[in-house]
Each structure stands twice: as structure tokens, then as C-alpha cells.
Specification:
The protein is of the alpha/beta class. Helices cover 30% and strands 25% of the residues. The protein has a nine-stranded mixed β-sheet with strand order 14-13-12-11-7-10-9-8-15, with helices on one face. It has a six-stranded parallel β-sheet with strand order 3-2-1-4-5-6, with helices on both faces.
Length: 348
């Protein structure tokens, strides 16, 4: 398979993507060709050991005709504008969550990409359903689980951050910070599984980290189908079970679990997605199934991105509307944080 050259823009979070493309899952599909950051010294320092070119100007990088793909890993605020600039240069884009801070801009730029035949992928919501979401839908149909009733999702880590003037410190740019930074994966999972969100409520606190934004938070979401969901996210838990992304999803006639139960130190984030189903048969016996489905939601789908860039149509791919709905939830969450009130999710 022909590897495609890629340039990575934004080297704070982007340094983790550099590792994926140079030595990880992306290396089979893409060839790292250049790094770009407004801090030219940072770009040169990371590029030199890898033997690739460094830029401090996006415009200069986009002038490279031999690089058809850009990885955009700057902050979400104003990302649609940068995507338009990259598309205007005739290049396809892979980026990250949160996709944008403005839902209207998110929807518009993704619709423009579709009209222009350009590819824009991100890790959450991913272009294609991940193994855990596919397993949920398969069990839901196979065992006639009925309507979804409720869902609880948890994610935490052990952070010791200090205020540094970045967008992480600004509640307008980083609303309900643990949810925005960690729980965003779960918001996108819920939309893919449950459909249209209607109302959100927020609780948050600041326990120990040094930023002025919250470090401990819950987001409640009521969906149009009647299902109620809660996401808990925290930077304040040191138990070795980091980023497990646990889920309990109740249906009328069964419950599905994802990554429930403790593992050895540090293994929770590497376990992939371990799924369990409990339902009741006609004879009133419990049916219990367990399945490891490999990587869960939030992983970068490098192979699917390569296939799409090469012109393949991915059946069942995420729609611009589904991506924008996740941003709509963030907009409502931001207002709920500010007012302390239940807030409606505006329709697209």
C-alpha cells in the first residue's frame, strides 16, 4: 500500500501524533514529511531527530506540493478557519477532538469539505463506528434489548497542572474542563448510540489542580428518545485506572457494560474495549456474554483515513450533522456552567 506524506501542524498535543505516524499505528499508511508550529524552535527540535523538515508558517507548509495530507492538532477554537485554508491548498485533513467550538462553523466547514470532495477525519467522533459501538448495536438487535433507558460513563486521570495562560485556563475556551478535554469522547459516543440530545445539566468543582477552570465535573444529558445519561470526568483520581472510559448502558431488557472493573496499574487505558452483556431469557435465566473488541472509540483510524484520501467511499461514515451535534452539546454545557441552570441543546 502506498504511504502518503503527511505534515503535522501544532506540536503540543501534536507531539503524540508524531509518535503514532513515525513509529505507531499510522506508520503503515503515512510517511511523516514535515512538522509545523508557530514556535519554530519547537518545530526544529522535534523535526531534527526524525530527519524531517520544520516550519513555523502554515502557509509555507501548504506550499509543499509533495505533501497531500495535513494533521491539524491546534486547539479547537477557530479550527474551521484553518481547515478551510488547508482545503484551499488542495489537501486532506485529519484532526482531533473537540472538533470546533462553534457548531454552525463545524457543520458549515464539513459540508464544504463534502462538496469539494475533500476528506476531513477526526478521532472522535471517528469516521466509522469503533468496535465497542458496533458490538453494542449488534447485541441490541440480536437480543432484542428494547429502548435505551439510562447510561453512566466515567473517565479520570491524575493531573497536577498549573495555570499557564493557555486556553485550558479560560472557561470560555475550555468549558467544564474535564468534560471538554476527556468526556468529549463520551459525548460523541452517546450521540452515535442515542441520537438527538435535548437538554444538559452541569455540576463541577475545583479540588486540587492549579488551573482556574474546574478539575472535577459531571454532565447530564437528556435525549429525545427519553434516555438519560451522565458523564463523570475528573483530573483528581490517582488509582492507576486512568482513561478506562467505563460505560453502563441500560436497555429495557438488558444492560451492556464497557471496561468495568479494576486492572493492574496503568493497564486500563491499554485494554482496548472489553464488553459485557446481561439480559434475561424467556425462561428467566440470565444470559451473560463477554467480548474484547480491540480498540475502542477515540482512536485515530489511520487505515480508514488513507482509504478515504485514496477515493474510497466509506459506507456508514459519520455525518457532518453528527459531528456538529457534539459541538451543540458543548455550547449548551458552556451556558449551563455559566448559569447553573438546565439548558436546552439548540437544534442544528
Amino acid at each position: 500500500m502506498e504511504r502518503l506524506k503527511i505534515g503535522i501542524v501544532g506540536l503540543n498535543f501534536g507531539r503524540h501524533i508524531v509518535e503514532q505516524v513515525s513509529r505507531g499505528d499510522g506508520a503503515a499508511w503515512f510517511e511523516l514529511a514535515a512538522l509545523c508550529d508557530l514556535d519554530g524552535e519547537k518545530a526544529r527540535a522535534q523535526a531534527q531527530p526524525l530527519g524531517v523538515d520544520a516550519y513555523d508558517s502554515l502557509r509555507d507548509l501548504l506550499a509543499r506540493d509533495d505533501i497531500p495530507v495535513i494533521g491539524l492538532f491546534t486547539g479547537p477554537n477557530g479550527r474551521a478557519r484553518l481547515i478551510r485554508e488547508i482545503m484551499a491548498a488542495g489537501k486532506d485533513i485529519i484532526t482531533t477532538k473537540p472538533f470546533e467550538a462553534n457548531a454552525d462553523e463545524a457543520l458549515a466547514v464539513l459540508q464544504e469539505a463534502r462538496q469539494q470532495g475533500r476528506v476531513v477525519h477526526l478521532n472522535s467522533p471517528a469516521p466509522m463506528p469503533s468496535g465497542d459501538l458496533k458490538q453494542i448495536n449488534a447485541w441490541r438487535e440480536q437480543y432484542n434489548l428494547g429502548r435505551p433507558v439510562g447510561c453512566r460513563l466515567d473517565v479520570w486521570g491524575d493531573y497536577h497542572e498549573k495555570a499557564n495562560g493557555s486556553w485550558y485556563d479560560d472557561p470560555e475556551l475550555c468549558p467544564v474542563a474535564p468534560i471538554y478535554r476527556l468526556g468529549i469522547y463520551m459525548i460523541n459516543d452517546l450521540i452515535r448510540l442515542l441520537g438527538v440530545p435535548e437538554t444538559v445539566q452541569v455540576l463541577h468543582s475545583r479540588i486540587r489542580t492549579g488551573r482556574p477552570t474546574p478539575d472535577n465535573a459531571q454532565l447530564g444529558i437528556a435525549f429525545a428518545n427519553g434516555c438519560l445519561a451522565n458523564i463523570f470526568a475528573s483530573f483528581c483520581v490517582d488509582d492507576g485506572q486512568y482513561y478506562a472510559n467505563t460505560m453502563i448502558l441500560n436497555f429495557e431488557r438488558g444492560t451492556i457494560y464497557r471496561n468495568i472493573g479494576p486492572l493492574e496499574y496503568g493497564l486500563a487505558c491499554d485494554q482496548g474495549a472489553t464488553m459485557s452483556l446481561v439480559t434475561v431469557t424467556g425462561e428467566r435465566h440470565s444470559t451473560i456474554l463477554r467480548q474484547n473488541v480491540g480498540s475502542g472509540s477515540g482512536h485515530y483510524q489511520w487505515e480508514n483515513f488513507h482509504r478515504a484520501v485514496k477515493g474510497e467511499l466509506l459506507e456508514g461514515a459519520i455525518t457532518p450533522e453528527e459531528v456538529a451535534l457534539g459541538v451543540r452539546v458543548i455550547e449548551a454545557m458552556k451556558l449551563a456552567e455559566r448559569t447553573g441552570s438546565s439548558t436546552a441543546v439548540a437544534p442544528l
